[in-house]
Amino acid sequence: MTAGTVAAPSRVAPGTAARGGPSLVGGRGGIWFVLPFLLVYAAFVLWPLVYGLGLSFFDTSVVRDESQFVGLANYVRLFSDPEVWRTLGVTVLFTIGSTIPLVAVALMMALLVQTRVRGQWFWRFAYFAPFLLPVATVALIWQWLFSGDYGLLNGVLSGLGLPAVGWLTEPDIGLWSVVILTVWWTVGFNFLLYLAALQAIPAQLYEAAEIDGAGGWRRLFSITLPLLNRTTGLVVVLQVLASLKLFDQAYILFQATGGPGGSATPILQYVYDTGFVDYRLGYASAISYMFFVLIILIALVQARLSRRSEL
Known about the structure:
Radius of gyration: 27 Å
Distance between the termini: 64 Å
Number of helices: 13
Shape: globular
Order of helices and strands: HHHHHHHHHHHHH
Helix content: 55-70%
C-alpha cells in the first residue's frame, strides 16, 4: 500500500462478529439473553395461568387428596351463586365511584401545578408521595383517621358541630371509605400523567389564543382539555382496570371482614375466601377466570371507544 492511499473498509458477513466469531445479536446467540426471562415468565405466569384454568374444571379442595373432573359444573354453579353477583356489584360500584374522582382530581391537581404556582417541587412531591407508600401503611393510617373514637375525620366533624360518621361500622359508608383511601393513595400517578401531557402542549398555542383575546377559561376548554383527550382516555383505561382489581386496601382496612355487613367485600376477596378459607380451590379458580374474562371484555370495549374518539 502506497502513501496517500486509504484502505477500503472490510465487509463483515451478517451474523458474524468483526473478528470472525458468531454474532450474539443477530445470530442464534441472542436466545441466551432472553432465556432467563422466558424461564421466569413461563414458571410464574404461563404455568400458573394454565394450571389455574385446568383447576377450574375439577372439584379440587385443600382438605382432600383426591379431586374429580366436573367439567363446567363450577362455572354453572357460579352463575347461580348470589355472593358472586353481590361482590361483583361491590367491585363495579367501587370502580365507578373511584375512577371519576381519580380522573377529575388528578386533572385539577395538574392544572394547579401548571399555573406556575410557587414551590412547584413541593406540590409535585406532596401530590405524588402517597403513591409511594405500601398498602399496609396506607390502610393503617386511614384506620386511625376513620376511627370513631379518636379519628381525625370525626374530630373535625365534631368541631363543626356535625354528628360523627361510622366510617368503618356503617354498611352504607364502608365502601366509600375505601374509595376515599384509594383516591388519596393513588391519585398521584394520574397527576403525573396529566402533568406530563400539559407540559407537552406548545406554549405558542396559548400565546396565539391570548393575542386573539381568549381568556383563561376559554383557553382551558378550547385548547387544554381537547389536547388532553388521549391522556384522559389512557388514565380512564388504567384506572378502571386497577379499580376492578380491588382487594388489598379493603382487605387490610377492614381486617379481612369485608366491611360492615360485607358491604366492602370485592369479588377478589370472595375468590380468596373461597379458595383459602373454605378450601374450594376448583370453584375459586372458576370465579377468578370468569372475572378475568370480564376484565378482558371491558378492556376491549374501552379500546374500541378510545379509537372511535380519536377518529
